[in-house]
Design a protein that fits this description.
Layout: E1 2-7, E2 10-16, H1 21-38, E3 41-48, H2 56-68, E4 72-80, H3 83-100, E5 106-109, H4 112-123, H5 127-142
Parallel strand pairs: 2-3, 3-4, 4-5
Antiparallel strand pairs: 1-2
Helix pairs in contact: 1-2, 4-5
């Protein structure tokens, strides 16, 4: 399950669990649309409660999109998970990001607030606006 929204060029996606192939396709289509409308985009992706990496099909969707999409200029990934499981998911995510988002600034974060600061600095937005929108998405997913 996931939700997404944007604040100018900042696209925020919050996933509960690892992204499925269908979610990846929907997310990529939304990011492309927003990047086209706004003249570029930076992503803030939050993954909460993942049990493992995205499926091979989801990873292929992201990789294909990254190769052909010059309008996405930065990717921040937040893995919301503590302990050994969190460290393992972050290590896998980092490896996947290196392949998927080559030639783009990519950072892995443990907190939404830190990622929002980084993304906001790349798109000229207030970090507070991104933080508020991200937490609003999380609340939407609880319903």
């Amino acid at each position: 399950m996931f939700a997404f929204d944007s604040v100018g060029q900042a696209v925020i996606c919050w996933h509960l669990g690892s992204p499925s192939a269908d979610e990846a396709r929907e997310e990529v289509a939304a990011v492309r649309r927003i990047a086209e409308e706004e003249g570029g985009a930076a992503l803030l992706i939050v993954i909460e409660g993942a049990k493992g990496p995205p499926s091979a099909e989801a990873r292929a969707t992201y990789q294909s999109a990254a190769r052909g999409d010059g309008k996405v200029n930065a990717v921040a990934l937040v893995v919301v998970q503590r302990g050994l499981a969190g460290r393992m998911i972050r290590a896998m995510a980092q490896a996947i990001l290196k392949v998927v988002a080559r030639n783009k600034p990519v950072r892995l974060f443990g907190e939404v607030e830190d990622a929002a600061q980084w993304v906001a600095s790349r798109v000229g937005q207030r970090p507070e606006a991104l933080i508020q929108r991200a937490h609003s998405l999380r609340t939407t997913l609880e319903r």
